[in-house]
Each structure stands twice: as structure tokens, then as C-alpha cells.
Amino acid sequence: MAKYMPEPFKIKMVEPLKMTTKEERIQKLKDANYNVFALKSDDIYIDLLTDSGTGAMSDTQWAAMITGDESYAGARGYQRIIDAVHDIFEYDFVQPVHQGRAAEQVLFPYYLSKDKVCISNMHFDTTRGHVGLLGAEPVDIVVPEASDTQNFAPFKGNMDVERFEAYIQEVGAERVGLVIMTITNNSAGGQPVSMANMKAVSEITKKYKLPLILDAARYAENAYFIKTREEGYADKSIIEITREMFSYAEAFTMSAKKDAIVNMGGLIGIKNNSEIYEKVKGLTIPYEGFVTYGGLAGRDLEALAVGLYEGLNVDFLKYRIGQVEYLGSLFKESNVPFQYPVGGHAVFIDAKVMLPHIPYYEFPAQALVCELYIEAGIRACDIGSYMLDVDRKTGEQLESEMEFTRLAIPRRVYTQAHFDIVAEALENIMKRASSIRGYEITWQPPVLRHFTAKLKPIIK
Ligand SMILES: *Cc1c(COP(=O)(O)O)cnc(C)c1O
Fold first, then answer.
1. 184: Cβ below 6 Å to ligand 1?
2. What is the pLDDT of residues 388-409, one digit of tens each?
């Protein structure tokens, strides 16, 4: 079993949790039509729905918020963000925005238009959405190891470099509007990208004169994985590794709700191209607000400037990644099947293996989400066939390659005992796995149904 990495902080402020009984949870889940997005967060004991915007800020971040300057133009916080981005990423231009998808909305029109192709190691769903909104086609070219959930590979988030180059030749470089490296690779389970891979991708983009940007929500976790898994980086600091990663791209988009540990915020960084920056400023003003606040309050800018550094702290990262590894190791002990190795921000339970009697069209990963809530008040998220919408043409249920129940870990929020409860809950669920039923959908919207659909258990 992995050792639990001790917290590099102590707790100064607490948020009480309500304890509920199993009977109450059964009723609340029924009232929510078996969709955990419809539950009140007060009725949840351990909320592992997402690690986005759910982290606990430090006293230093809260202190910075009090000093926030709420001037409409030229607020102090804007300068602090610029200084932090110069220092950490060594990029010349920065545009704050309200969250990651806003960065995509503002930056992508510079690169993409109808009939262009956007290639990535894997598009995050909002990224895919913004590529599509511009009439361009998102193409994922991740390494095949990414879909092997059982065997260790250090960098399952990598781009498949050979297929990448072959694909550019196949469609023609002039059709490729943009190349995005997502670090860590969220949709592949928070799996990291190696420096060697980043370098190789950058060389190919140079060869074909293609722009390369980073989707950098988890920049610090990725740097930590490079430090601990890639040869030649053990003695480099996290900030040095971060600078090298960012040196290969010309711009980045970032959801600051992940590694920068704020509840709301995002960034666009541009290395040295003032033409891109002018275009970004032009779109920021109508969509996000004046360039010096970009959809954020002055106090948010302050907390973000501090959080960008806190995310890089090596003791914090050791604890954070250690926490996710600890949970994985508890699962291993009780034979709960999960994607191995665990990613930086989440453990993905393999519901297809755990509940083999539930077919994809009865949503095994969602069935496990419901069981986790009933068992111990834990909220998880289906990343499987339930999350996929129906085929738009035929109306038929699509089959996801994987049926994952994702347990995403908020930063600096839960303690070892909470993780022990999660592992215990899954152990208990394993014991009654064969009696767990599948679900059917009773109502669904046309797109992105998993947020609002209604379900009910199938009684056979
Ligand atoms: C969260 C995330 C986004 C979108 O960011 P939001 O802040 O949720 O809008 C984009 N890309 C990746 C890789 C993400 O994890």
C-alpha cells in the first residue's frame, strides 16, 4: 500500500459537513432522478465530482484578495498576473479571462475557421466544443497506451508522434490550423505528457510551420510527473521544468481552476507575437470585459497570481499526487478495478469490469455513481456511455470505449480518513456488485444530457 503523503499545511478554517443516513440518501437520490448533478451539495459528504474550482485557497491567497484593487482599468492585480506569467512561463503577453473555456473562445478564432483541422493529444470537451463552433474539425492522436488501463506506462498522455506526422501529410499542412498539447491529458485520465514528446511534437510543428499551443490547466502536475518519471529531470526544479515545457509552444490557454487553485479564473499567455495579442485583446473586450480584468474581480486576479506559484510547490505536489496514488493503492488492495497508473487529479474506476452484467446501454458507470452516493454520500461522475449523447442521426445510444466512474480529487480539501471511507465504500459495493441494477433514461435534452437528464433503475 502506498504511504499517505502528509499534508504540507494545517487547517485554519473548516466547512462543516452534514451527515446523512442511508435511508435519507436513497430518498434524495430518487428525488434527484438518479442524476447526482441534481443533488444539493449540502447532502453530499465527500464531493469528488470535479477538481475544477473546488480547491481550498491558502491564507496567503485570502490575504491577497483583501488587497484586491477593483479599478475598472489598470488594476494592480493585472500587473501581478503579468509579472507572474513573465516569471513562471517566460511569456511576454497575458490576458486574464473568467475561465478556461473563455480563453478558448477568445484565442481560437485567430487560428481556426471553417474546414480547418485542429490536432491534439486529446481535446478536452469544451476545447472540442470551441473548435467545432468555429467550423473546424478536432482530431485526437493520443498514444495507444492511453487505452490500456491495466499496464504501467509513464506518459500515457503523449501524442502519437508517428501518426501525428502521417496525419499532417494525409490532410495537408495547409489545412491544419492548430496543434494543441493538453497537459496533463485530462480526457485520457489526467495522464502526463513527457518532455521528450513535447519536444518531438514541437519539432514536427516547426517542420510543417504549424502553430503549437498548450492547454495548460494542469501545468504543475505535469511538471511533477516529468520530474519523478523522466530521465534527466530529477534534479530540476518544478519551475525550471515548467519553463522548458512552455518554451516549446507559442501560446497557452489555462483554466486556473485546476493547478492555480482558484475558484474561478483563466489565462491566455502569448510568447512574443504581438499580432496574436492584438487579436486576443479585440475579442476579450466584447466577450470578457476590459483587458486588465478579463471577466474577473480585482481580488480574483490577486488570488490567481499567488495560486500560480502555490501550485508549483514541490511539497504540495508530492502530497497531492501522493493522495491520488494512495487512493489507487487502497483500491488495488481490495481488487477494485481502476485505470493504472492513476492520473494527477483523479482515479478512474473501471465500471465495465466491476459490473460486467450491466450492458453499456444501461450505464454501468452511472450505476456505480448512484451506489457510491447511497453507500457513503460520495459524489462521483460518469465518464462512459451515459455521458455520451445518442447518435444525432439515428437516435441510438452510442457505446463508449470505456465505462469509467471518475473520482476527481479537489486540492487541499479532504484528508486521509476521507479517502479510507471512499475505499471502504467501494469494497462494500464490490461485495454486492452482482445485485446492482442498470438504469434507463426517462427524459433527456438534445445535447450534453448528463448534466440534466432524468433516470430510473431498471427493474427486471
Ligand atoms: C477544465 C479544463 C478546461 C476548461 O476550463 P474551464 O475553466 O472549466 O472553462 C479546458 N481544458 C482542460 C484540459 C481542462 O481541464
1. no
2. 878 878 888 989 888 999 999 9
Give me the CATH number covering residue 365. 3.90.1150.10
The distance in angstroms from the start CA to the end CA of the chain is: 40
> 337 near 368, Cβ under 8 Å?
no
Distance 311 CA to ligand 1 centre (A): 16
Among the candidates 294, 310, 326, a domain finishes at 310
pLDDT digits (tens, 9 = 90+) for 351-378: 999 999 999 999 999 999 999 999 999 9
Q: Could you give the dihedral angle defined by the CA atoms of residues 381, 385, 387 and 389, in that order, rounded to the nearest 10 degrees?
A: -170
- Verify that 200 and 335 share a domain, yes or no: no
Residue 14 placed within a domain: no
User: Would you say the CB of residue 185 lies under 6 angstroms from ligand 1?
Assistant: no
pLDDT tens, position by position, 175-190: 999 999 999 998 888 9
The protein residue with its alpha carbon nearest to ligand 1, atom 14, reads 217
255 and 336 housed in the same domain:
no
The position carrying cell 453499456 is: 360
Residues with a catalytic annotation lie at: 72, 124-125, 215, 217, 258, 450
Strand bridging mode 439-443 / 454-457: antiparallel
Global pTM value: 0.96
Are both 294 and 336 inside the same structural domain?
no
Which CATH number characterizes residue 155's domain?
A: 3.40.640.10
**30 and 66: one domain?**
no
